[in-house]
Design a protein that fits this description.
Oligomer: homotrimer
Radius of gyration of chain A: 17 Å
Order of helices and strands of chain A: HEHEHEHEHEHHEEEHHHHE
Function (chains A, B, C): Catalyzes the phosphorylation of the hydroxyl group of 4-methyl-5-beta-hydroxyethylthiazole (THZ).
Number of domains of chain A: 1
Organism (chains A, B, C): Aminipila butyrica
Helix content of chain A: 40-55%
Shape of chain A: globular
Enzyme class (chains A, B, C): transferase
Strand order of the largest sheet of chain A: 2-1-3-4-5-6-7-8-9
Keywords (chains A, B, C): ATP-binding, Kinase, Magnesium, Metal-binding, Nucleotide-binding, Thiamine biosynthesis, Transferase
Largest interface: A-B, 34 and 36 residues
CATH superfamily of chain A: Ribokinase
CATH class of chain A: Alpha Beta
Pfam family, one (chains A, B, C): HK
Number of helices of chain A: 11
Number of strands of chain A: 9
Chain lengths: 273, 273, 273
């Protein structure tokens, strides 16, 4: 079922505007190209809205936000809303500093996001239901497990309803939901957490998938999450005992590059709740 | 014939100042090291001209230009002109926003560039003969093909004459020309377009090649274009069916690392027009 | 002896705050993850001290310093001192511009660093005993050789005493010393100098090693230097004739990912002087 979603990305080749951090930006650009999309990065206030206008989706990632790029995030987000482009938020490190938490919340107040994707600590922080922080990684106490899954699904649906958006909480188990429906996704490998930027890259893919599949945004977001996890599984099988997180990173992008609809259909592991 | 040009880079090891984007900057640094040059990145107005002074070439790339780095581009460019260092412009995304187009044009008014390298959409935009945009990639309507080659060569020569510089329009077919002579280069692989930064990396190589071969700038630029394309061909042969654009990126840099003069001589495919 | 130091990093998983350059930042994040630590990058003055507060070590790298990030370096450094966190300085390109030299010196005046790690040209510049510059690489005239080793050890000890810090001068031969004791380390490969960021990555590892081994800072710094050099040796053995600096970079990070205490114990090559 999800196979068509990646094939549409390859067919339409959406141009995705990314205002993102400088840590993982190269991997973000390469994974968008790997999926068949086209990336552009632009974060100066003098051009942010212009660049949004020529693109068909916007990805805002606060991983290394600063006083110059924050205004560009707002300008681009508002322009994207005007043009009805999909807009995705990756609230990297929300909870780690007041600036990150407040910027993410203010972005959510002033901009209508189609999807908010973060780890469990980030999303809990934004929903103000607690949430610890271990910097940009999820705190162990926040991680979604089999024991906490039912509660986590209810939380995702409630928060999605409250914010009027799709919420994607990703980790060992991923939950992608709107107010009514949640996809519980079990693709991926724990070793993906040892690579910087797997979350950022996933958010890029979500932007591309929504742009190419605008009629079915929830499924498109879930398909992107499955695709990223499946790429992690495929890449993992290539690793030798001498390989580590650097080679694994390249192989994951390579796996997206080679991922076709049929493979995604067969490999996607999810339940609808 | 071009073999000496890369050997001179390895012999002289020029220090190249790069004011460049944060998307592809790591690959830019590594490909300069791979070619035997030495990179330094510095984009603050307080040090830009100082850094230019200790280097022997300057590469200005507007891929993520902003209000802080634009003044540094002008200061560094003027200093490089004073010192008669080769200065190269990579007008990434010219046409994608007013800021990019106007900054690139203003840079070309105030700084004497030895080479301007871009894709066909970027160069056409700057020459104000149309030019569409697909962000940082060339629009299909602008691509140089066998059918449009003769006209494209004439355009490159005319624009080179107008601007008093060498113009390099790169894509499936590359044209590197001054007002009198154009090298039409057929090295490379289409899959290189699926890697972010192959253009940026090429511009770095051009800077290094000109710095190490200052008496023959046109040939040096053409040699750099052949070297990058040939590296793309050599790297492509190493790929397995599981590999994609991430591994391909590493292999291209590796191929530059291992490229000797003899291999470049044998592998360069070009015609003089 | 050094094996415990990396095992403690994996056990404790320190969160390391990095204010660093955008050239090598991705490799810095991945090598910290590879070692078992957790990275966060944050360089805006509005959050720098907050981020420092939730971390357990701070790494300041001036590789692409600018007017916005310099104040963040001071704010974060002072907060780290208040909290008695290990603070490490990587004075990238000190000597290459007045801004770099003066910023590094001022940082050293106002912040108490536990370790200063640089190449021989950078450290000599800071100690004002000469020091040439080749941008971010050491000038040949400054390199530590067998002939200059005894003098270099004496210099490291004297400068360490003067500054009240551990000094790490790294290159073909590494010297890590305080006023009394110097570790002379002979791990590593000359080809590591052809990869951008091996120095930056090493500084990250030093921060993580000190954080996880706070009672033995000198040994922890020396252990990190051995680990990085050993990773370079292990990675080098995997290279084929087609590989170059890009693949080598990935393999070095991979080697850190797989490095256990026993391997580090066996592979560390050092003398105490």
């Amino acid at each position: 079922m999800f196979g068509n979603f990646i094939e549409n990305v390859r067919l339409i080749s959406p141009l995705v505007h990314n205002i993102t951090n400088y840590v993982t930006v190269n991997d973000c650009a390469n994974i968008l190209l790997a999926a068949g999309a086209s990336p552009i990065m632009a974060d100066d206030i003098e051009e942010a809205a212009d660049i949004t206008s020529i693109c068909s989706a916007l990805n805002i990632n606060i991983g290394t936000l600063n006083q110059n790029t924050i205004p560009a995030m707002f300008a681009a987000g508002k322009k994207a809303n005007e043009l009805f482009h999909p807009v995705i938020l990756d609230p990297v490190g929300a909870g780690a500093s007041a600036l990150r938490t407040s910027t993410a919340k203010k972005l959510m107040e002033e901009i209508k996001f189609d999807v908010i994707r973060g780890n469990s600590s980030e999303i809990k922080t934004l929903a103000a239901i607690g949430g610890s922080t271990k910097g940009v990684d999820a705190a162990e106490t926040d991680v979604v497990s089999e024991e906490t899954l039912t509660a986590a699904i209810a939380f995702v649906k409630a928060y999605a309803e409250q914010m009027g958006t799709i919420v994607a909480v990703t980790g060992a188990i991923d939950i992608v939901g709107d107010k009514d429906t949640a996809y519980v996704i079990r693709n991926g490998r724990p070793e993906m957490g040892k690579i910087t930027g797997t979350g950022c890259m996933l958010t890029c893919l979500i932007a591309a998938f929504l742009s190419a599949n605008p009629q079915e945004k929830l499924k498109a977001a879930a398909a992107a999450v499955c695709a990223m996890g499946l790429a992690g599984e495929i890449a993992y099988k290539r690793l030798t005992t001498a390989d580590g997180n650097a080679t694994y990173r390249s192989y994951i992008i390579d796996a997206i590059y080679n991922l076709d609809g049929e493979t995604l259909d067969k490999g996607a592991r999810y339940a609808i709740r």
